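Q: Here's a chain of 173 amino acids. Please give me its 3D structure as C-alpha cells.
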Amino acid sequence: MTVTLKETARAIAEDYRCNAFLKPRCVVIFYRIANYLACRSRLTLLLGAPVILLYIFVSEWIMGIEIPVKTRIGKGLTVYHGMGLVINGFCTIGDYCVFRHGVTIGNTIRSDGTNSGVPVIGDRVEFGAHSVALGDIHIGDGARIGAGAVLLSDVPEGGVAVGVPARVLERGR
C-alpha cells in the first residue's frame, strides 16, 4: 500500500477538524505521519524509524491508544477519550469513523489455533464506549455500535448493534 503526501495532508486536515481535544488530535496526527513513513516506501520506513518508534512509545505506552502504523484508516478519524482504544493493524476503517474509550477492534483465535480475519469497517461508523468488534465481519456505512456491545457478526448499512453478543435492532426502533 502506497500512501501519498497529498492524501496524508488532506487526512491530517480532516482529522484535526474532527477532533476537538488536544490528546486525540496529537495522537491522530502523529499516527498519520508515522503511517506515511511506514507505508510510503522502504526508504521512508528506514529513515522514519525513529519517528515511528516515538509514535509507538507516546501513543501506546503513555497515552494508552494502540493504532498500529500500517493500519488503513480513512480521513476524518475521531477519537473521544481514547484511553484503552485498541485497533488490530490488519483491519480496514473507512472515512469519518468515531471511536470512544475502551473500544477494541480485533481478531479471534479459532479452535484449531489459527487467527480469524479482522473487521472491515465502512464510512461514518460510530463505536460506543467499551464496544468490541471481533473476527472476519463487515460493518456497513453509517452503522452504530452501542456502548459495551460485543460484535461477532455483520452489521448492515445504517444498522444499530447492541448487547452481548450484539444483535442488530430493527429499523425504526
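Q: Can you summarize the key feature?
A: Residues 1-66 form one domain.
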